[in-house]
Every structure is written in C-alpha cells, then in structure tokens.
Protein 1
Amino acid sequence: MNSKDLIKNAEEILVNEGVDVSKKSDSETLKEYILPAMESSKDILSTIYAFNSRSREGFLGKIKTKIQQKIIFTVINVIEKQSMRQQKFNELTFRAVEKLIAENESLKKELEALKK
C-alpha cells in the first residue's frame, strides 16, 4: 500500500463519518484529522495499567482480591510485550508523519519563494 492509497482510505473513512474532505488538500487532511487520531493512539498501554480491582474486607475477600490481582498481573504480562511494540510503532509513525508534514510545508515555502 502506498501513500496515495493510505490517504484515499483515510478520506473514505472521513466521508463515511460525514466529514467533507474534497475541498481540502492532503496536508490539511493529515493535520486536521489523521495526526490527532494518531496522537491519541500513541498511548495504548495506559488503559492496561489503569485497571485496579476493588479491595474486599474479610479473610475470603482478601483472598479473592489477591487472586484477582495475580490474574490482572498475568494478563498485563502477556499482552504488555505486544502492546509495547504497537505503541512504539504508533509513536514512530506519528513522529515520522509529523516531520514529513513539516518538511513538506518548508519545501512548499521554498518553492513559492523560488517562483517569485
């Protein structure tokens, strides 16, 4: 899949959501819609660590809480490695797209300056 296909797919999704992007340039679409979505997908591990089991009173309650905590930690350990890879990929992709947009804008300014 090349960059044109990616932008086309993103535009189709935005059209399905009711957003008209036909009058906007690719860089405007990237800045307004795609970059904010990518930025929010950078921190995917926060929801894993946010979950806490409620503490219970009494002997059986403490045993239930202890067992539930062990299950939570096991689940976190199992999915953490893959999630960390995905989060790192999301972060690197976001930074790369951000830098490419900035470079594209500076090159457009240089081109406009050369045309004058």
Protein 2
Amino acid sequence: MTTDDLSNKVISIFQKYRRGEHFHFEVEEGGEMVISPDGFNYVSIKHDSNGLNDETSLLEVGDAKHYVIKMMEVHHDSHTVRLNNYFVPGNRLEEFMLSLAQRPGKLLEIKQFIPDTTA
C-alpha cells in the first residue's frame, strides 16, 4: 500500500463517518477510528504505508518534508487582507503549530511536500 493509498483510505473513512455510514477495518490493516473527547477525531493506523512501525524511519520521513502554511491576516482599520505563506521545515513543524495562537490571522491551508534533493 502506497502513502497515497493510505491517505485516500483515511479520507474515505472520515467521509463515511460524516455520512453516518457503517465502516469496518480489515484486521490486517490494524487501524481504527478514534472518537476523541476533544472533538478532533482521528484514524489510528498501527503501521506506515510500507507495513512498518519504526519510529526512527517515520521521524526521518517527517523531518525531510517541508510545509507551506497559508494564513489570512485581516486589517480592519485599513480594509486590507494579507495572505501569509510560511515555509516550515518538517523538523520545526510542531514548534510552528504551537506558535499559531500568537500569530495574527486565521489558518487557511497546510500543504506538505518533500523537496527535490537532486539539485
């Protein structure tokens, strides 16, 4: 199963959950829908897209990614809107997310990518 397959499966599970459909995980996938008391439900998968559950390799992949985080900043006094696009390396993503409450604006979008390191 590729990373895209896994992402599509997670999205499908959330869509079925929102529509109130019954869904069932196959045992070998080792995943489950978790209804979180804080309202941020999540799908828990016990292995990555390669069937592994290796903390070191998962962290290496996460750190290699970069994120573009788009926020909208509204200035009512000057009637202007700014779109701020932050470029955040994967190894600083958690730090950035924790700083969101102190940043002006509203979070609009997060895109991830793995930079091409062949250049």
Protein 3
Amino acid sequence: MLRIEAKGLTKEFKTHRSRTGLSGAFRDLFNREYKTMRAVDHIDLKVREGEMVGYIGENGAGKSTTIKMLTGILMPTSGYLRVNGMDPHREREKFVKTIGVVFGQRSQLWWDIAVQESFTLLKKVYRLSDEQYNKHMNHVIDVLDIGDLLTRPVRKLSLGQRMRCELAAALIHNPPLLFLDEPTIGLDVLVKLKIRDFLKEINQEYGTTILLTTHDLSDIEALCSRVVMLDEGKIIYDGGLTNLRTTWGNQKTVYVEFGSTVYLEDLQAATADLSLVWHKENDLRYRAVFAEEALSVSDLLSRIIARYEVKDVSIEAISTEEIVRKIYEEGFAYA
C-alpha cells in the first residue's frame, strides 16, 4: 500500500518585485510587478507502508514546501497528490487524524500547562477512548522515558525533554504516517540516540511510515534505508542509501604515519604507477586518496611497507555528509 503518492507535484508562489527609488515605490502603489517562483517543480514521489525515508536538501531546495503540501497546509498549484489515500488539503479534517507531525522549531504542546494536560486535550481532539489512549500511550511514555515530565509545565522543560514530549504528542492517536522535520535539532547525543531507538521501535512494532527531513545526516544513516534528495524544487536522487555510497562514495583515504622523515617526492616516485594522490600532513604523516575500484588498500600498504618504516595506518571512507556535499557542489546526481 502506498502511504504517499505524488505525480507532477508543483507549487508556485507569486512574489512582489519592488522597483528602485522613490519613483519606483510610487509606481508600485498603483501598478505592482510580480514574478512567479516555483518552489517545487513537478516531483514524483511514492512512499510505501512501513518505509523510513530521508528527505534531504539544502535550504531553499523545497523540502518544507513539499512537507506542507503532504500534510495539507498548502494546496499544490498542480499535480496529483494522495496521502493515506486522501487529498490532504480537500479532506483535511478526516486526513489529519491519520498523520503525526513533529516540527523541530514549533510546538503542539500548550506552553503554560502540564504535559499530561496537553496530552489529555489532544486525546479529546482525536476522540480517543481511555482504553485506546492507555493501551498505546503507556508504551510510548515508557519507551521515551517521559513519565517524570508529565506533571511539569512545558515551559520548564529542556529542549531535549520537550522534543521527547512533542514526539509522544504526535503519536497519541497512533497514526500510520509520521512526518518529522528536524526532530533532533539542537539535541545532545544521548537524547538523539533515545529518539532514534524509539523511532525504530514504532516502525517495527506498528509499521509506522516515517518521512524524515533533516540536515543531520547521521539521523538519516541511523534510520533510513532510502534517501530522496531535492535541489531547486526537483528530485535529483531517489534511491537506497547504500547505493548512494556505492555510486558516489567510492573514495578512500589512508593515513600513514612513518617512523622517520619521509619526503613527498620520494613517496610519489615509489607509487608512480598507482592511481592515487598523496597529501602531506607533516614530515611523518601523509594521506593517500584514491578511488576504491582503482586500488586496494593492501596493494598500497605492501608497496609502502617494503620501503619505509611504518608506525601507524588508519583508513577512512568518505562520509555520507561529504558525498551529499559533493553532489550539490559538483552536480553528481541523477533522478
């Protein structure tokens, strides 16, 4: 079953173009000039039940606009869109009961009342029985470890505590689809790990489909097997995280620390027939950069150890963050 199905999804905005100078401002009073900006440009997207999908892109790429259309906040300019089998904007009252949303910078909890009171109000909004609420929320509260926070006003919670409560609030009605927009922004490592473990658990136990938008690619690596990458309103990559690393992350870096001074020219001469580039860190430490398919680490080390005293070796694969940076800077991507 498809949780999200979009075909040719497009969103355009009209923006006012101001003329320069006093005369221009006067003319704008009577005859304004507008230009059309296309924030999302004919994207096709399918997300199946139970998937955890990372939706990434630079600022201004169109991520937030897409999320707003998928959640029914904005109406598309054109294209076909169904989420949980419904039109998010036209069937909004019925639709919102089937999704959960967490925005890292916005709260759905009431600031001055206790967390439990917010939960009680949301329970009434979603018209849940005591049995439905207790059966699901007792588990959520336990796993997120927020039992001691329920009697505190939201304004007295730390950011990490509030985000765990926000996540619980989004799941009160046990929605089949969860939208997360920067859910771990500003959180410390321990809280991030707790939230990640919880998201994995609800995905496995309830089959909750999750669409995750974040700039923290470690969240994507920890949770998602599929990545959708957006640039200038268009999808430039949609596929597995493993395939992304295999295709664009084939670069390896080997750091070699020698027992005595080594000269860059000598290293280059000793490996002249190998496809690699040497970089000098200091007189004793160098790094070799090469494509994985062009050279094996063992071949490189056997060549070096035969000629020099080697004290230490470390191997570093290119990070997902570096891969994404290269794609945006150099355009190495495909739809």
